[in-house]
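Hey L., structure's done. Input below.
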Amino acid sequence: MAAAGLAESIGAVAIVGFTSSGATVARISRKRPSLAILAITSDLQVARRMALMWGAHSVHSQDAHSYEEMVTIAEATVRIEGFGRNGDLAVVVARHSIRPIRQEQQSARNTHRCLTPLTQPGTR
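Output:
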């Protein structure tokens, strides 16, 4: 997964993976990155399964309704869980669906965003 390579090359403190099924975090975990994987989901059973994945620190969180909301949750969670502080870098990975006009044409893709740097809550 490109996110692991990106995170390692920029010196990020963590890869933050948002997932509903655990598949995104499983793909990151398979790469065995040298940094922490912060696995965030709104499904408690998925959070429990992800806790068993290599290098993953699983967090049960509220559901995010937009990518920007995911980034806000990621920034706060990285600090709260002790993985980083203001000025540190993190890479956020989330799988989201692209819904064209016809539902049967739905596809999905992984998106990643580099946070540079983590900010104080409420300073954006």
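Residues 2-115 form a domain with the Pyruvate Kinase; Chain: A, domain 1 fold (CATH 3.40.1380.20). Residues 110 and 121 are 26 Å apart (CA to CA).

-- N.
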